[in-house]
Write a structure and sequence with these properties.
Blueprint (H helix, E strand, L loop, with lengths): L1 H25 L5 H26 L3 H30 L4 H20 L6 E11 L5 E9 L3 H24 L3 H25 L9 H76 L1 H29 L2 H5 L2 H13 L5 E7 L6 H22 L3 E8 L3 E8 L15 H11 L3 E6 L5 E8 H9 L1
Parallel strand pairs: 3-4
Antiparallel strand pairs: 1-2, 4-5, 5-7, 6-7
Pfam family, one: HATPase_c
Membrane topology: Multi-pass membrane protein
Subcellular location: Cell membrane
Protein backbone atom coordinates (compact mmCIF):
# COMPACT_ATOMS: atom_id res chain seq x y z
CA UNK A 1 0.00 0.00 0.00
CA UNK A 2 3.00 2.27 -0.52
CA UNK A 3 1.68 4.65 -3.19
CA UNK A 4 -1.86 5.07 -1.85
CA UNK A 5 -0.67 5.39 1.75
CA UNK A 6 1.87 8.01 0.68
CA UNK A 7 -0.80 9.98 -1.18
CA UNK A 8 -3.16 9.81 1.79
CA UNK A 9 -0.38 10.97 4.08
CA UNK A 10 0.33 13.95 1.80
CA UNK A 11 -3.38 14.80 1.63
CA UNK A 12 -3.66 14.58 5.41
CA UNK A 13 -0.65 16.86 5.82
CA UNK A 14 -2.19 19.45 3.49
CA UNK A 15 -5.46 19.40 5.43
CA UNK A 16 -3.62 19.68 8.77
CA UNK A 17 -1.59 22.66 7.58
CA UNK A 18 -4.60 24.46 6.11
CA UNK A 19 -6.69 23.75 9.21
CA UNK A 20 -4.10 25.11 11.62
CA UNK A 21 -3.55 28.13 9.38
CA UNK A 22 -7.22 29.08 9.39
CA UNK A 23 -7.56 28.48 13.11
CA UNK A 24 -4.67 30.91 13.53
CA UNK A 25 -6.45 33.39 11.27
CA UNK A 26 -9.60 32.89 13.36
CA UNK A 27 -7.73 34.27 16.37
CA UNK A 28 -7.73 37.64 14.63
CA UNK A 29 -10.64 40.04 14.18
CA UNK A 30 -11.54 39.42 10.53
CA UNK A 31 -14.37 36.87 10.21
CA UNK A 32 -13.20 34.66 13.12
CA UNK A 33 -16.29 32.39 13.11
CA UNK A 34 -15.94 31.64 9.40
CA UNK A 35 -12.26 30.74 9.62
CA UNK A 36 -12.83 28.73 12.81
CA UNK A 37 -15.52 26.62 11.12
CA UNK A 38 -13.35 26.06 8.06
CA UNK A 39 -10.26 25.27 10.16
CA UNK A 40 -12.27 22.73 12.15
CA UNK A 41 -13.56 21.22 8.89
CA UNK A 42 -9.98 20.84 7.65
CA UNK A 43 -8.83 19.16 10.88
CA UNK A 44 -11.72 16.65 10.74
CA UNK A 45 -10.78 15.99 7.10
CA UNK A 46 -7.20 15.36 8.25
CA UNK A 47 -8.44 12.80 10.78
CA UNK A 48 -10.73 11.14 8.24
CA UNK A 49 -7.97 10.71 5.65
CA UNK A 50 -5.60 9.25 8.24
CA UNK A 51 -8.33 6.77 9.25
CA UNK A 52 -8.51 5.50 5.66
CA UNK A 53 -4.94 4.19 5.72
CA UNK A 54 -5.67 1.31 8.18
CA UNK A 55 -8.75 0.39 6.13
CA UNK A 56 -6.63 -0.11 3.02
CA UNK A 57 -4.02 -2.04 5.00
CA UNK A 58 -6.51 -4.42 6.72
CA UNK A 59 -5.80 -8.12 6.20
CA UNK A 60 -8.76 -9.69 8.05
CA UNK A 61 -12.48 -8.94 8.42
CA UNK A 62 -12.39 -7.69 12.03
CA UNK A 63 -9.53 -5.35 11.34
CA UNK A 64 -11.34 -3.96 8.27
CA UNK A 65 -14.62 -3.47 10.19
CA UNK A 66 -12.88 -1.52 12.93
CA UNK A 67 -11.09 0.70 10.40
CA UNK A 68 -14.31 1.15 8.39
CA UNK A 69 -16.28 2.10 11.51
CA UNK A 70 -13.71 4.74 12.50
CA UNK A 71 -13.54 6.25 8.99
CA UNK A 72 -17.35 6.34 8.66
CA UNK A 73 -17.73 8.04 12.06
CA UNK A 74 -15.22 10.71 11.08
CA UNK A 75 -17.04 11.11 7.76
CA UNK A 76 -20.29 11.82 9.61
CA UNK A 77 -18.48 14.33 11.83
CA UNK A 78 -16.99 16.02 8.76
CA UNK A 79 -20.40 16.46 7.14
CA UNK A 80 -21.89 17.92 10.33
CA UNK A 81 -19.04 20.44 10.65
CA UNK A 82 -18.98 21.20 6.92
CA UNK A 83 -22.68 22.06 6.78
CA UNK A 84 -22.13 24.68 9.50
CA UNK A 85 -19.20 26.10 7.52
CA UNK A 86 -21.44 26.34 4.44
CA UNK A 87 -24.12 28.09 6.51
CA UNK A 88 -21.65 30.65 7.89
CA UNK A 89 -19.95 31.23 4.52
CA UNK A 90 -23.21 31.74 2.63
CA UNK A 91 -24.82 33.59 5.56
CA UNK A 92 -27.83 31.24 5.29
CA UNK A 93 -28.28 29.90 8.80
CA UNK A 94 -31.71 28.39 9.55
CA UNK A 95 -30.77 26.93 12.93
CA UNK A 96 -33.63 24.42 13.15
CA UNK A 97 -32.83 22.93 9.74
CA UNK A 98 -29.14 22.73 10.63
CA UNK A 99 -29.89 20.98 13.91
CA UNK A 100 -32.19 18.58 12.04
CA UNK A 101 -29.44 17.75 9.53
CA UNK A 102 -26.97 17.21 12.35
CA UNK A 103 -29.43 14.95 14.19
CA UNK A 104 -29.59 12.66 11.13
CA UNK A 105 -25.84 12.19 11.31
CA UNK A 106 -25.96 11.65 15.06
CA UNK A 107 -28.35 8.75 14.40
CA UNK A 108 -26.09 7.43 11.64
CA UNK A 109 -23.10 7.72 13.97
CA UNK A 110 -24.84 5.69 16.71
CA UNK A 111 -25.96 3.00 14.25
CA UNK A 112 -22.44 2.86 12.87
CA UNK A 113 -21.03 2.26 16.36
CA UNK A 114 -23.46 -0.49 17.44
CA UNK A 115 -23.82 -2.38 14.15
CA UNK A 116 -21.74 -5.56 13.85
CA UNK A 117 -20.21 -4.50 10.52
CA UNK A 118 -20.69 -0.67 10.53
CA UNK A 119 -23.68 1.11 9.02
CA UNK A 120 -23.06 0.00 5.43
CA UNK A 121 -23.12 -3.76 6.02
CA UNK A 122 -25.19 -6.22 8.06
CA UNK A 123 -22.21 -8.53 7.90
CA UNK A 124 -18.98 -8.96 5.91
CA UNK A 125 -18.07 -12.49 4.83
CA UNK A 126 -14.57 -11.94 3.54
CA UNK A 127 -12.17 -9.50 1.99
CA UNK A 128 -11.16 -9.54 -1.66
CA UNK A 129 -8.58 -7.47 -3.47
CA UNK A 130 -8.38 -5.35 -6.59
CA UNK A 131 -5.00 -4.92 -8.23
CA UNK A 132 -4.17 -1.42 -9.35
CA UNK A 133 -2.37 -0.80 -12.67
CA UNK A 134 0.92 -0.38 -10.84
CA UNK A 135 0.45 -3.77 -9.10
CA UNK A 136 -0.77 -2.56 -5.73
CA UNK A 137 -3.61 -4.68 -4.21
CA UNK A 138 -6.66 -2.85 -2.77
CA UNK A 139 -8.85 -4.45 -0.07
CA UNK A 140 -12.58 -4.78 -0.87
CA UNK A 141 -15.30 -6.21 1.44
CA UNK A 142 -17.87 -8.81 0.38
CA UNK A 143 -21.08 -9.15 2.36
CA UNK A 144 -24.71 -8.10 2.83
CA UNK A 145 -25.69 -4.40 2.83
CA UNK A 146 -27.52 -3.09 5.90
CA UNK A 147 -31.11 -1.93 5.30
CA UNK A 148 -30.27 1.09 7.52
CA UNK A 149 -27.78 2.12 4.86
CA UNK A 150 -30.67 4.11 3.34
CA UNK A 151 -30.64 6.41 6.39
CA UNK A 152 -27.09 7.39 5.56
CA UNK A 153 -28.12 8.15 1.97
CA UNK A 154 -31.02 10.25 3.30
CA UNK A 155 -28.69 12.23 5.56
CA UNK A 156 -26.21 12.76 2.73
CA UNK A 157 -28.93 13.83 0.28
CA UNK A 158 -30.46 16.25 2.80
CA UNK A 159 -27.11 17.90 3.46
CA UNK A 160 -26.33 18.15 -0.25
CA UNK A 161 -29.68 19.80 -0.98
CA UNK A 162 -29.16 22.28 1.85
CA UNK A 163 -25.60 23.12 0.75
CA UNK A 164 -26.52 23.79 -2.87
CA UNK A 165 -29.60 25.78 -1.88
CA UNK A 166 -27.39 27.90 0.40
CA UNK A 167 -25.07 28.50 -2.58
CA UNK A 168 -28.10 29.51 -4.66
CA UNK A 169 -29.21 32.00 -2.00
CA UNK A 170 -25.69 33.46 -1.90
CA UNK A 171 -25.65 33.72 -5.71
CA UNK A 172 -29.02 35.49 -5.70
CA UNK A 173 -27.70 37.93 -3.09
CA UNK A 174 -25.05 39.07 -5.57
CA UNK A 175 -22.01 37.16 -4.25
CA UNK A 176 -21.73 35.21 -7.50
CA UNK A 177 -18.02 34.43 -7.47
CA UNK A 178 -18.09 33.12 -3.88
CA UNK A 179 -21.21 31.03 -4.54
CA UNK A 180 -19.78 29.48 -7.70
CA UNK A 181 -16.48 28.64 -6.00
CA UNK A 182 -18.22 26.90 -3.11
CA UNK A 183 -20.67 25.20 -5.49
CA UNK A 184 -17.89 23.76 -7.67
CA UNK A 185 -15.90 22.45 -4.68
CA UNK A 186 -19.06 20.86 -3.21
CA UNK A 187 -19.93 19.33 -6.60
CA UNK A 188 -16.51 17.64 -6.73
CA UNK A 189 -16.96 16.32 -3.20
CA UNK A 190 -20.49 15.06 -3.89
CA UNK A 191 -19.36 13.42 -7.13
CA UNK A 192 -16.57 11.49 -5.43
CA UNK A 193 -18.90 10.53 -2.53
CA UNK A 194 -21.47 9.23 -5.03
CA UNK A 195 -18.75 7.15 -6.64
CA UNK A 196 -18.00 5.57 -3.25
CA UNK A 197 -21.71 4.78 -2.72
CA UNK A 198 -21.69 2.90 -6.03
CA UNK A 199 -18.68 0.98 -4.78
CA UNK A 200 -20.59 0.10 -1.56
CA UNK A 201 -23.57 -1.06 -3.63
CA UNK A 202 -21.30 -3.28 -5.71
CA UNK A 203 -22.08 -1.45 -8.94
CA UNK A 204 -18.40 -0.79 -9.71
CA UNK A 205 -15.12 -2.28 -8.57
CA UNK A 206 -12.81 0.55 -7.63
CA UNK A 207 -11.02 2.21 -4.75
CA UNK A 208 -12.79 4.83 -2.69
CA UNK A 209 -12.02 8.33 -3.98
CA UNK A 210 -14.00 10.56 -1.61
CA UNK A 211 -10.76 11.62 0.05
CA UNK A 212 -9.77 13.36 -3.20
CA UNK A 213 -13.02 15.29 -3.10
CA UNK A 214 -12.36 16.22 0.54
CA UNK A 215 -8.91 17.56 -0.33
CA UNK A 216 -10.22 19.49 -3.33
CA UNK A 217 -12.79 21.19 -1.07
CA UNK A 218 -10.08 22.08 1.43
CA UNK A 219 -7.67 23.47 -1.19
CA UNK A 220 -10.23 25.36 -3.31
CA UNK A 221 -12.00 26.97 -0.37
CA UNK A 222 -8.72 27.77 1.38
CA UNK A 223 -7.52 29.67 -1.69
CA UNK A 224 -10.87 31.46 -1.90
CA UNK A 225 -10.94 32.38 1.78
CA UNK A 226 -7.33 33.56 1.63
CA UNK A 227 -8.15 35.80 -1.34
CA UNK A 228 -11.19 37.22 0.45
CA UNK A 229 -9.09 37.73 3.59
CA UNK A 230 -6.46 39.69 1.66
CA UNK A 231 -9.20 41.82 0.12
CA UNK A 232 -10.73 42.40 3.56
CA UNK A 233 -7.32 43.36 5.00
CA UNK A 234 -6.73 45.76 2.10
CA UNK A 235 -10.19 47.26 2.55
CA UNK A 236 -9.59 47.59 6.27
CA UNK A 237 -6.30 49.38 5.61
CA UNK A 238 -8.08 51.70 3.19
CA UNK A 239 -10.76 52.42 5.80
CA UNK A 240 -8.09 53.13 8.42
CA UNK A 241 -6.30 55.44 6.00
CA UNK A 242 -9.58 57.13 5.06
CA UNK A 243 -10.37 57.66 8.72
CA UNK A 244 -6.90 59.09 9.29
CA UNK A 245 -7.28 61.47 6.36
CA UNK A 246 -10.78 62.41 7.56
CA UNK A 247 -9.41 63.30 10.99
CA UNK A 248 -6.64 65.35 9.38
CA UNK A 249 -9.19 67.12 7.18
CA UNK A 250 -11.38 67.83 10.20
CA UNK A 251 -8.40 69.18 12.14
CA UNK A 252 -7.30 71.34 9.20
CA UNK A 253 -10.84 72.68 8.81
CA UNK A 254 -11.03 73.46 12.51
CA UNK A 255 -7.70 75.25 12.33
CA UNK A 256 -8.85 77.19 9.27
CA UNK A 257 -12.08 78.25 10.97
CA UNK A 258 -10.15 79.21 14.10
CA UNK A 259 -7.72 81.22 11.98
CA UNK A 260 -10.57 82.90 10.10
CA UNK A 261 -12.28 83.76 13.38
CA UNK A 262 -9.03 85.21 14.73
CA UNK A 263 -8.15 87.10 11.55
CA UNK A 264 -11.62 88.53 11.02
CA UNK A 265 -14.27 88.43 13.70
CA UNK A 266 -11.94 88.30 16.70
CA UNK A 267 -9.80 91.22 15.57
CA UNK A 268 -12.84 93.20 14.47
CA UNK A 269 -14.56 92.71 17.83
CA UNK A 270 -11.35 93.71 19.60
CA UNK A 271 -11.31 96.93 17.57
CA UNK A 272 -15.01 97.49 18.29
CA UNK A 273 -14.41 97.03 22.01
CA UNK A 274 -11.47 99.46 21.95
CA UNK A 275 -13.45 102.15 20.08
CA UNK A 276 -16.52 101.68 22.28
CA UNK A 277 -14.38 102.08 25.39
CA UNK A 278 -12.74 105.27 24.09
CA UNK A 279 -15.85 106.95 22.62
CA UNK A 280 -17.27 108.44 25.90
CA UNK A 281 -14.01 110.26 26.58
CA UNK A 282 -13.65 111.40 22.95
CA UNK A 283 -17.26 112.64 22.90
CA UNK A 284 -16.60 115.02 25.77
CA UNK A 285 -13.59 116.57 24.02
CA UNK A 286 -14.63 116.40 20.33
CA UNK A 287 -18.17 115.33 19.38
CA UNK A 288 -17.38 115.41 15.65
CA UNK A 289 -14.54 112.91 16.05
CA UNK A 290 -16.78 110.79 18.26
CA UNK A 291 -19.45 110.85 15.55
CA UNK A 292 -16.93 109.47 13.06
CA UNK A 293 -16.03 106.83 15.61
CA UNK A 294 -19.67 105.81 15.88
CA UNK A 295 -19.89 105.45 12.12
CA UNK A 296 -16.71 103.36 12.11
CA UNK A 297 -18.12 101.31 14.97
CA UNK A 298 -21.30 100.61 12.99
CA UNK A 299 -19.24 99.61 9.93
CA UNK A 300 -17.04 97.25 11.95
CA UNK A 301 -20.08 95.69 13.63
CA UNK A 302 -21.77 95.06 10.30
CA UNK A 303 -18.56 93.58 8.95
CA UNK A 304 -18.22 91.23 11.93
CA UNK A 305 -21.84 90.18 11.47
CA UNK A 306 -21.24 89.48 7.77
CA UNK A 307 -18.11 87.47 8.61
CA UNK A 308 -20.07 85.37 11.09
CA UNK A 309 -22.73 84.75 8.48
CA UNK A 310 -20.05 83.60 6.04
CA UNK A 311 -18.67 81.15 8.59
CA UNK A 312 -22.16 79.87 9.40
CA UNK A 313 -22.80 79.26 5.69
CA UNK A 314 -19.64 77.13 5.56
CA UNK A 315 -20.65 75.19 8.69
CA UNK A 316 -24.27 74.82 7.57
CA UNK A 317 -24.28 73.61 3.89
CA UNK A 318 -28.02 74.25 3.41
CA UNK A 319 -27.15 77.92 3.63
CA UNK A 320 -25.72 77.54 0.13
CA UNK A 321 -29.04 76.19 -1.11
CA UNK A 322 -30.96 79.18 0.18
CA UNK A 323 -28.93 81.86 -1.63
CA UNK A 324 -27.64 82.40 -5.19
CA UNK A 325 -23.91 82.68 -5.83
CA UNK A 326 -24.00 86.46 -6.43
CA UNK A 327 -25.61 87.11 -3.06
CA UNK A 328 -23.12 84.81 -1.30
CA UNK A 329 -20.20 86.68 -2.89
CA UNK A 330 -21.64 90.04 -1.87
CA UNK A 331 -22.10 88.81 1.69
CA UNK A 332 -18.53 87.53 1.72
CA UNK A 333 -17.17 90.84 0.41
CA UNK A 334 -19.23 92.80 2.93
CA UNK A 335 -17.61 90.82 5.75
CA UNK A 336 -14.13 91.55 4.41
CA UNK A 337 -14.86 95.26 3.96
CA UNK A 338 -15.68 95.44 7.66
CA UNK A 339 -12.02 94.96 8.56
CA UNK A 340 -10.23 96.89 5.81
CA UNK A 341 -10.32 100.25 4.04
CA UNK A 342 -10.00 98.49 0.70
CA UNK A 343 -12.47 99.65 -1.96
CA UNK A 344 -14.18 96.64 -3.57
CA UNK A 345 -16.32 97.09 -6.69
CA UNK A 346 -18.70 94.17 -7.09
CA UNK A 347 -20.57 93.39 -10.31
CA UNK A 348 -22.96 90.49 -10.74
CA UNK A 349 -24.50 89.74 -14.15
CA UNK A 350 -26.53 86.71 -15.15
CA UNK A 351 -26.51 84.99 -11.76
CA UNK A 352 -28.29 81.63 -12.05
CA UNK A 353 -28.88 78.45 -9.97
CA UNK A 354 -25.78 76.33 -9.37
CA UNK A 355 -24.98 73.24 -7.34
CA UNK A 356 -23.80 73.61 -3.74
CA UNK A 357 -20.39 72.20 -4.67
CA UNK A 358 -19.84 74.80 -7.41
CA UNK A 359 -21.02 77.70 -5.23
CA UNK A 360 -18.76 76.58 -2.38
CA UNK A 361 -15.69 76.46 -4.64
CA UNK A 362 -16.41 79.95 -6.05
CA UNK A 363 -16.85 81.34 -2.52
CA UNK A 364 -13.70 79.69 -1.16
CA UNK A 365 -11.56 80.91 -4.06
CA UNK A 366 -12.96 84.43 -3.71
CA UNK A 367 -12.27 84.38 0.02
CA UNK A 368 -8.70 83.14 -0.48
CA UNK A 369 -8.03 85.69 -3.22
CA UNK A 370 -9.33 88.64 -1.17
CA UNK A 371 -7.40 87.54 1.92
CA UNK A 372 -4.21 87.37 -0.16
CA UNK A 373 -4.90 90.85 -1.57
CA UNK A 374 -5.36 92.27 1.94
CA UNK A 375 -2.19 90.63 3.25
CA UNK A 376 0.24 91.01 0.34
CA UNK A 377 -1.02 93.18 -2.54
CA UNK A 378 -0.92 96.64 -0.91
CA UNK A 379 -3.89 97.46 -3.13
CA UNK A 380 -6.42 100.27 -2.70
CA UNK A 381 -9.03 98.98 -5.10
CA UNK A 382 -10.35 95.53 -6.05
CA UNK A 383 -12.83 94.52 -8.73
CA UNK A 384 -14.94 91.39 -8.33
CA UNK A 385 -17.04 90.60 -11.39
CA UNK A 386 -19.32 87.59 -11.78
CA UNK A 387 -20.82 86.96 -15.21
CA UNK A 388 -23.02 84.02 -16.07
CA UNK A 389 -25.02 82.77 -19.03
CA UNK A 390 -26.39 79.44 -20.25
CA UNK A 391 -22.91 78.24 -21.24
CA UNK A 392 -20.57 79.24 -18.42
CA UNK A 393 -19.97 81.15 -15.21
CA UNK A 394 -16.91 83.42 -15.11
CA UNK A 395 -15.48 85.10 -12.00
CA UNK A 396 -12.82 87.82 -12.38
CA UNK A 397 -10.98 89.23 -9.37
CA UNK A 398 -8.42 91.99 -10.09
CA UNK A 399 -6.57 94.52 -7.95
CA UNK A 400 -4.30 97.56 -8.45
CA UNK A 401 -1.69 96.31 -6.01
CA UNK A 402 2.05 95.74 -6.26
CA UNK A 403 1.73 92.45 -8.17
CA UNK A 404 4.38 89.73 -8.28
CA UNK A 405 6.19 87.37 -10.61
CA UNK A 406 3.81 84.41 -10.92
CA UNK A 407 6.71 82.20 -12.07
CA UNK A 408 8.58 82.73 -8.79
CA UNK A 409 6.07 81.88 -6.10
CA UNK A 410 7.81 80.85 -2.82
CA UNK A 411 7.28 77.19 -1.89
CA UNK A 412 5.67 78.04 1.44
CA UNK A 413 2.77 79.99 -0.16
CA UNK A 414 0.10 77.34 -0.77
CA UNK A 415 -2.86 79.66 -1.39
CA UNK A 416 -2.60 79.63 -5.19
CA UNK A 417 -2.09 75.85 -5.29
CA UNK A 418 -5.15 75.34 -3.08
CA UNK A 419 -7.24 77.59 -5.34
CA UNK A 420 -6.15 75.55 -8.38
CA UNK A 421 -7.04 72.29 -6.64
CA UNK A 422 -10.46 73.65 -5.71
CA UNK A 423 -11.08 74.65 -9.33
CA UNK A 424 -10.02 71.22 -10.59
CA UNK A 425 -12.42 69.54 -8.16
CA UNK A 426 -15.39 70.95 -10.14
CA UNK A 427 -13.68 70.73 -13.57
CA UNK A 428 -13.30 74.52 -13.74
CA UNK A 429 -10.38 76.41 -15.27
CA UNK A 430 -8.23 78.66 -13.09
CA UNK A 431 -5.93 81.32 -14.53
CA UNK A 432 -3.75 83.81 -12.65
CA UNK A 433 -1.82 86.65 -14.24
CA UNK A 434 0.38 89.08 -12.34
CA UNK A 435 3.39 91.26 -12.98
CA UNK A 436 5.40 93.38 -10.54
CA UNK A 437 3.85 96.83 -10.22
CA UNK A 438 0.83 95.97 -12.42
CA UNK A 439 -1.53 94.23 -10.02
CA UNK A 440 -3.01 90.76 -10.21
CA UNK A 441 -6.00 89.19 -11.96
CA UNK A 442 -7.63 85.82 -11.24
CA UNK A 443 -10.11 84.27 -13.69
CA UNK A 444 -12.23 81.28 -12.67
CA UNK A 445 -14.38 79.77 -15.41
CA UNK A 446 -16.88 76.93 -15.01
CA UNK A 447 -18.45 75.62 -18.22
CA UNK A 448 -21.96 74.17 -18.11
CA UNK A 449 -21.48 72.26 -21.37
CA UNK A 450 -18.22 70.57 -20.32
CA UNK A 451 -19.60 69.45 -16.96
CA UNK A 452 -22.82 68.22 -18.57
CA UNK A 453 -20.82 66.02 -20.97
CA UNK A 454 -18.68 64.76 -18.06
CA UNK A 455 -21.74 63.81 -16.05
CA UNK A 456 -23.27 61.94 -19.01
CA UNK A 457 -20.06 59.95 -19.51
Amino acid sequence: MTIISTLLGIFAGICLYVGLLHLLIASGRLKPVLHFCFGLTCLVTFSYILALIPKYKAIDVDEYINAKRLASSLGFLFTSVCVWFVAVYTQFKPVRILLGLNSLYVICFLINQISPASIQYSYINKLSTITMPWGEPITQPEGMLNYLFGLQLLALTSNVVFAFYACYRQYQRGEKSSALTLGVSLAILVGTAQHDRLVDLGQIKSIYIAEYGFVSLVVIMSLRLTKELMQAVKLREQLVESERLRKIAVELERNRLARDLHDSVSQTLFTVATIAEALPRVWKRNPETAQQGLEELAQLTQGALAEMRNLLVELRPNGLVEKPLGELLQQLIKGILGRTSLEVITTVEGDRPLSDEVKLVFCRITQEALNNIIKYAQATQVSVRLHGDSQEIVLRISDNGCGFDSNKIPSGHLGIAIMKERAESIAATFHLSSYPGEGTEIVLSWSTAVNKIGSEE
